[in-house]
Amino acid sequence: MKNTNRLIALALGTIVIAQCFCGCKGKKKQQGQTETDSVSQADTSSAKAPVKLKNHMTTKEYDSVTEGALTVLDEPWNDHNGTSGILSEYQDGVYFEICEKEDMLRNIEENPEAYQAWTEEELEDYKTNFVPYINGFVVDGRHYGTMISFPPEDGDWFGWYSVLEEGTLTTKEIVDLQDLKDKLPMLLEDYSKDDYQYCYFGAHLDQELWEKDILRIFQAKKDKTYKELPFGISEQIIDEHYQNLMNPQGDLSWELDKEKIEKIKDQVTEYTFYDEELDRKFVVHVALPKGLAEDAKRTSGEEKEEDGGSAFPALVLTDAVWRFNDISKLLKEMEEGRAKPQILISIGQDYKICNSDNTERSALFCEGKDKFLDFITDNLMPYLGEKYSIDYENSTLFGHSLGGVFVHYALCNSDQYENQPFGCYIIGSPAFWSPYSRKMSDYSEQANDYGYLDRNDTITKHVFITAGSDEDEDYAEYFEDGDSTTESIAHLAERINSKCDPSSPMAKDKLYKSHHYQYIPDMLIEYADEGY
After folding, report:
1. pTM of whole model > 0.85?
2. In whole angstroms, what is the distance from residue 250 CA to residue 354 CA?
């Protein structure tokens, strides 16, 4: 949330019951930014003006968007083997990083501080007599230094290895491949000791795998079957390797009913978005019930609502790692006439990270909640409004547990934005008591609903607040002196409704016979069937 403007939120449609004067602010437009308008109208028979959202994506963000067929059934997380970033790009074979003369000259130019201790004569001699060398190896994503190595071109030595002798690193010759095989067990045993860890991270590698990889490196040199790494990538790979050792990835897989999802795959479009504020990539799925595609999709320059066409509410689900699995059931409800047509949108993080890991989730829902709300409000929903005819006023944002903490924040800061993509919010089992929530710098503001009820004389958003009737017993140790989950949802509903006409309460709380999450699929079906 950036610049502050003034906004009058009009009292329109079934979700708005009175005028509300709010201080609103939209994202600050950055240099080179793309700005477009998305238009939607809930009741096409009414005379009300369509809602417009401004797209605040930067050029980089806009250009990063991809659109295509559903890939989740291919289990794309398996391509990354628990890695992300640089490491994920080098999982398929043997790579050498070779420093050629042009690499050396560029390195001197770009990193002059590394050569400050050299005299001009030493530097010129180095340039003149430079010999290409290998700076590191990668085998199926595993990085190795050059404690065991060879010249990049055929030379007098087959290879060499380095050992510590009286505290000094000494180079010794490897005569041939058999000589290497004979010495490897002893060398790798030594390298795994603490004395070598300042120059090699062998203590973290399986020694049997390590031995096989070294032999593969030498064989690839002989057969010329290796691939080359861009020079300078080794340090990035080493850094990422250590990050993965300190913060190992969990199970990257998504919860999927493959048989049911296979039947709807042609009704789903998969998007990827990059957000500069969060420096994160998102996987977003948009699903349409059969028969709705032509009405819901826009064509270039087309504004269907202005021509008397239809707009459809969107149901936006966070934590797609679990919630995408509910899409097929929701589509069936609409296609069989039990629920009104909606555009179903699920938001997940990059397949390369563990979407179910609470550290990753809290990075969005807790520490990064303001930036994540910026992304949804000023990037995602306006962009999708360019592709689909969205009735924003009747659209819903849903989150559960830490996601429920986030949706509470989204509701209570919605009046700070010019864009208003949601008229309805579902707050599921909000974990206000979680360690991740308590660590937030503005935790005390959470209890006061971030001043939302103080700033607004009237509440104009519908709020459905839910929990499992049996979940408190599972988390009692975390509540300390605060509300339990079931108490917190009842108190939140009371606070919201205290600002409403008693005959038209805007918040409803409901307990389902369930523990923390089991009720969610049935609750979403009930919500879709009963309307918004």
Report:
1. no
2. 6
